[in-house]
Amino acid sequence: MTKNIAGVSLPSIDDICWEHWFNGAQRILEDPFHLPHGIFDPLPSSRRSSSQFQLSAAMSESAKFSPCAKRVCHYPVDEVPEYTMPSFILREEEPKQQKVKVRSFPYGTKLRAMEDEITRLSRSVHEQTDMLALKRMEEERTALQRHVREDTICRAPDFLVRLRSHTVWENSFVKLFCTVQGFPTPLVRWYKDDVYIDQTGVPGKYRMESYYGVHSLEINRCTTNDTAQYTAVAFNIHGEALTSAAVMVKRFRGDEEPYHSVLLPVKLPLLSPAVFTHIDIQYSEKFGVSFGTEGETMILTCRMILTPNLRRLQPEAVWYRDDIEIKKSKWALMHYGDSTAILTLPHLNKDDEGLYTLRLVTRGGVSQHSAYVFVRDADAPVAGAPGAPMDLTYYDANKDYVILTWKPPNITKESPVIGYFVDRCEAGTENWIQCNDAPVKICKYPVTGLFEGRSYIFRVRAVNKSGISKPSRVTDAVTAIDPADFARLQTIHFDESRQIVISQDDLEGEVKIPSSPTNIQAAETSRTYIVLSWDPPEPRGREPLKYYVEKTMAGSASWQRVNVEVATRSPRLAIFDLAEGKSYEFRVFAVNKFGMSQPSMATKPIVVQDLIAIPSPPGMVRCARNTKHSVIVQWVPPKNGGELIGYYIDSCLLGTNDWQPCNHKPVKYTRFVVHGLKNGHKYIFRVKAVNAVGISEVSQESEPIVVQAALTVPSSPYGITLLDCASNSMTLGWKAPRFTGGSEITGYYMDHREVTDLQWHESNIKAISGTVYKVENLNEGGFYEFKVSAVNLGGVGIPSDCSRPFRCEAWTMAEPGPTYDLTFCEVRNQSLVIQWKPPIYSGSSAVIGYLVDVCEMGSEEWRTVIEQPVTTRYLKVTKLEEGKRYIFQVQAVNAAGAGRPSEPSEPVLVQARPGTKEISSGVDADGNIFLSFECSDLTDASQFTWGKAYEEITDFSRVHIETENTTSKLIFKRPDISDLGTYSVAVSDTDGISSSFVLEKDELERLLALSHEIRHPTIPLKHELSYEVFDKGQVRFWLQAERVSPDAQCKFFVNDLELKDSQEHKIKFDKSTGIIEMVLEQFTSKSEGTYTIQIEDGKAKNQSSLVLIGDAFRVALAEAEFQRKEFLRKQGPHFADYLHWHVTDECNVELRCKVANTKKETMFAWYKDFVAIHAEEPPNVETGECKFLISEFSRKDMGEYKMTLKDDKGQDISVLEVAGKVYEEIVQEISRISGLSASELKIKCTPEGIRILSFLKYYMEDMKVFWYHKDSKIASSEKMRIGGSNEQVWMQICEPTDKDKGKYMMEIFDGKTSYKRNLDLSGEAYTEAYNEFQRLKAAAFAEKNRGKVIGGLPDVVTIMEGKTLRLTSTVFGDPVPQVTWLKNDKDLELNEHLSATLEQGKFASLTIKGVTTEDSGKYGINVRNKYGGETIDVTVSVYKHGEAIPEVKRGVVAPPSAPKPAEPPKSSKSEKRK
User: Which of 33, 226, 569, 683 has the highest CB neighbour number within 10 Å of its CB?
Assistant: First the structure.
């Protein structure tokens, strides 16, 4: 139509738009100076935009924790911009619409109307073109945003590729894949039949991988047990999602074939052997920051999961300390096995302090873990002495010289170190020798006087005015040799197995006197010594060299030899005894056996001074939060810090001035993480610089810092909801971030824009304090989008997702608006608590209640939880199914009805967290009633929030909150009935950990009663009032309270009369022990009555009474008088222990006593029944012990025993009546010892019968010994005789028969215990015993009736020659025995000279008539019958008349005497017999 009217061909609307967009975009891209040339960059709000430089400055300033965080529109480098401007849109100011010039045509109004129509159509085309352009621009912008931000916007996990089921053969492997998206990046956990899969349970069985959202689970060596449903659960802070698949494992049974046997030849393997070039290492246990003390043992352990875990392809475990590899030694032991790396430090020293790193080296790379180890000083040998030096090392070792260096100990409370002692010890010995007489001031010392070729170890001790420290760790053994000697050796290889080693000295020819040393210089210079070094002369000759050194003051020509007595063998010499600050020159002579060289060139003047000074203190000590128990300390190096060893850092609790060392070994860096601090406490720090000269002054103290976790920006708010709307304003609400970033949310910033606008506009300049904000100056009818950012001390967080478009249109409905901020807590297996906030728009009337609807995730069916509206803004929803996810919404209700529902909540998984704990109530030691909640899953930024009726408690007039570590307490100040209700607690920055407690009336009354008992207690008493009598007859009344304060008071009453402290009754109150006592010096008959003590400690009271009246008083009075007499008795010699009896192990009875206060003159006497007796063992004067031994105790020893003591100081008597009960007790004790010693029953046969006996230590008649036969007691009789001797007890069975067979038992009873012995007299035992009895009986009968001489014959007969000798004896035998006489063991021939007779069968005689000397000899009578007999000898000695009667012994015949001349006969004499 327009073509017909205009007469020309007009372009289409599409062509116009595309040409307009293309030309504009082309101009922008080609012109770099065009204003919107950088339109593809993120477009911040106009009033908040800043340059990158300004942004960096702002971020650096945020470390100062300004109370008002500045809002910065900043996008991280790796974050996709919020949106980009399409290249074909030019955001320029629209040119003003030019008015179409109306032309006049002379030919009339028809042409004018045509021109107006063309103008109208042109305007309409422009408007439609602009509208279409805006529409397309919005669609493309939305699509572009969706494409750009699809992987970065905050949303719940979503599976793009879900798990797929598999069927596999046994012993093969299967791999499950899934792809998940979400932000923050979701974590994925794997489950088998709803049981969490733990890789550590079966190492190598499962392998889990995750690459850019693609997650996999590999199951190796499948078995039929692996047939199950496998589930992958992805979760982040916005929710979770899951996907499942089934795995079937089939077993080959012969009729089925694996797939590969069909597709491939049987002999060919399906897959080539796997070659693993990468080992995945996951740590299941790591060592953390550790603290130890010198001398202790520390073990660092790291366990890991290796995938694959192949025995021949294990990683190499290498340990490092401060990036230096640790070698195996006696100080460090390393072990690796079973996927566990262990480092053992058997004896900690401060040398061991540092950053420990475990590096696991594999073919695919290196995995490492690090943690710091702190080693504290051990207790010093002397209080106040410094800690031990550390890192003792040596260098420049030579033939008789070595230089040692070390690091000084840290000093906080101790006095400064004034020097060090260096000790040396020859390796293999324990003989330590101190090298320096005076302490060396610096941490470096040259040790001289070593013997060439010997090995030495060294140690160092620090000294201050309090004493000497423990020694440092010893060095490794160092051998005193010149390393240059090895350089002068040359090796010539003769063949493969032989070589020749020659010295360069052998090639120098005949050099006798050496040349001069060269290159003399000062290797070490200090204010106490100088170390000279030089090069040996060239050529040096074959002979060994020694050196002498001379010195002179600079400018002087007077040289003085330094080492006069002993020449040095090393080209090094430490020179002491130099004047500090003076300049010296030195020269060196070389000497061998041929002579001395010329002096070397003199050195330049060398000043005796330290080349380095003590460093100045570090500066600008700053601290930053790190974790709950650590702080980052940074500082600036000292301006004057030559050759720094490191730094020491000290910490102090603010206000205590108690400085503690943070590190015990100097650190080299200017940044250190201080561990082991108390969470929530304020600390200040200082730093000291260290070099070889000493430790600097302390730096300025840092600003105080509270030990808390480091701050981060909060996470994004979410759930933006329209709460109210007017014609030009909108009220919106949102939910607070789930993670606060470690500090409270200080406010929010909101941006808004119209749907058709690409640029965001600030809704507020000042931070919004709450989660509701009213945005004004909006266009009525427009559609707006909103986003919100949270602010804390860490800065402005990431903005929320863009809200859905809301139309700005005034609300006029009578029903209320939507509720908002739906939150969930106390999620358990079948219940949860939902909370919400009331609607901003209440409608035509006030809100009277709320309705809660629930919908199972995946369903569209909503149901109302409760039929009637609830008036509270929280509800506990029950009867939910465990493991399911639910969505909730809440509607407010007023008189007009139910209002708009809230925005649907995020899905909530109904499942209790493992280890969920609940709030508990109690009363503390001070009587305060509290509610307590413990959370073990705290993060560094977690905070406890307490509420009543699910409203946060902000009024602390009735309660206060105390939080320590993982426990928080809500303590009531003045609890009463107004405190009843529901209390809740929530822990921020966790996965919704929360709990509630309903405080009911009964529970409150119980707690109040318990609190009253604690705050107003009756003072508990350990001991009630009682009395005791002292040795002088004094009486002490006392009691003891459990615990009293220093303000406690007491009163003492006797018969209602208060007593005060005096000499007669001393009253004492020891409040530390709670003992109250009163001592009566004189306890007499007037002391009878009632004694009372009253105690008062604040409001707590108690009293205790003791009644001493009547018999109770008389007992106390008698005891007091007795003790008084005892005291007087003990002033002289007395018995400390009175006479008492004791039975020894040998069953002897001892009467014992113990005496005291005796002296040499003291007389001791023993009596029995008033008759003096003598003790075998004299009294022991030193110990006072006296003993009287009674052996073989029996009834004859009964009686009254008495011992007396007497000297000039006094006398004492002790009496013991051994009779009655005492006698019985002694017998019982003897029975006990004998019963224990009794042997087993034995059999002994006699002619009378069978005797059963037992050997024991002692037997007496009064012992209770019983015999039993077949459990029947035996009484002594003719048949059964019972008796005993000193060492045995027996029972005789006379004339035993078969009835006497059976079991016999002997019992010894000591009054308490029976000691039994048994014997089975039957069977073979009885037969053998009976046969023996018969044998002995027959032998006894034969012995009784055999022939024997029963008397009459003397042993020796002496008779004079010529006399008649008649030998007569009485014989016995049945039958009558035959008698034979013998002479000299031969039968005697009878004749007239010798005649024998036997009268009446019992009187045998031998007559010798006219005896001569030939009759002398041994005569015998042999008496014998059929049972036997015996021979009795008699010696006959004949002497002549006039001879002395010879002395003849039995059996010895006197030799015949020589014949003498006959003498006249004398009167006869009687015979002499012996």
Answer: 683
